[in-house]
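Please produce the structure of this protein holding nicotinamide-adenine-dinucleotide.
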Amino acid sequence: MCNTFGNQKQRGVKVLLDGKRIAIFNIANKRSIAWSIAQSMDAQGAELILGYQNERTQASVEKLATELKNKPLAIVPCDVTIPEQLEELQETIRKQAGTINGFVHSLAFAPREALQNPYLFTERDEFLTALEISAYSLVLLARTLTPVFSDEASISTLTYYGSEKVMPNYNVMGVAKAALEASVRYLAYDMGPAGVRVNAISAGPINTVAARGVSGFLDILEVHEAKAPLKRTVEGREVGDTATFLASDLSSGITGEVIYVDTGYNIVGL
Ligand SMILES: NC(=O)c1ccc[n+]([C@@H]2O[C@H](COP(=O)([O-])OP(=O)(O)OC[C@H]3O[C@@H](n4cnc5c(N)ncnc54)[C@H](O)[C@@H]3O)[C@@H](O)[C@H]2O)c1
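Below is the modeled complex.
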């Protein structure tokens, strides 16, 4: 196998995301799914804009970015609860990239207590926070970044099977993911006439900071490994490669879909 980006370039072989400029929100650390996506897209020739939430994660993203083959066009703050920051984001993208060919939404949050106590006891503010950050933010980012989209842009987001079936302690996050998946369909409908595609990747469980916030997450990993047809959990790289496919022209006929990258877990009944 000598199919590296460098070799492909040298041989003049077109790589999947050649000439595509894509923004990825947000990377926290090297375990983040967003980082796996960045690595896969970078290997396929994309020019990236990398997002981080706060100063705590900024340094980590800047350090990780040095590992990429192509220097990112920009590394930008993106806290979806700060509207002015999103306006600035649009301006930065306009200045640094001109237009983008889409973005990846890989961010979510729910207060820890809401991922420990029974769903019945979810407080109003916990519910609203989870839904705002994990679902509404997709709509907000799509609207804010539409003015800097090139023709035929692609938006992808990350969801989880807990939107459809009960996963112990996933609770309000399952409700938020259900809203996120419905938003994917409504956005795909609204944005389709302009050539914009919107899809979700339903990733199997991966050991990240966000995932460890769900009480009993390690049990979910174990059950997944035992029951999934491939008898293993999914790798970040596999999710990253699917995001690359969705950002590429190879997926030009796909929109409004939830694509499972979960080693087959969702097809199993018992
Ligand atoms: N890890 C899994 O098992 C798994 C499975 C399926 C889907 N997902 C989804 O993948 C996405 C990425 O999560 P991850 O597992 O890589 O964990 P992660 O902790 O690495 O990433 C979560 C990201 O959300 C960001 N974030 C939180 N609050 C934010 C805010 N107010 N504004 C902007 N960004 C904010 C964090 O900074 C972080 O970068 C999430 O949507 C998650 O629900 C994860």
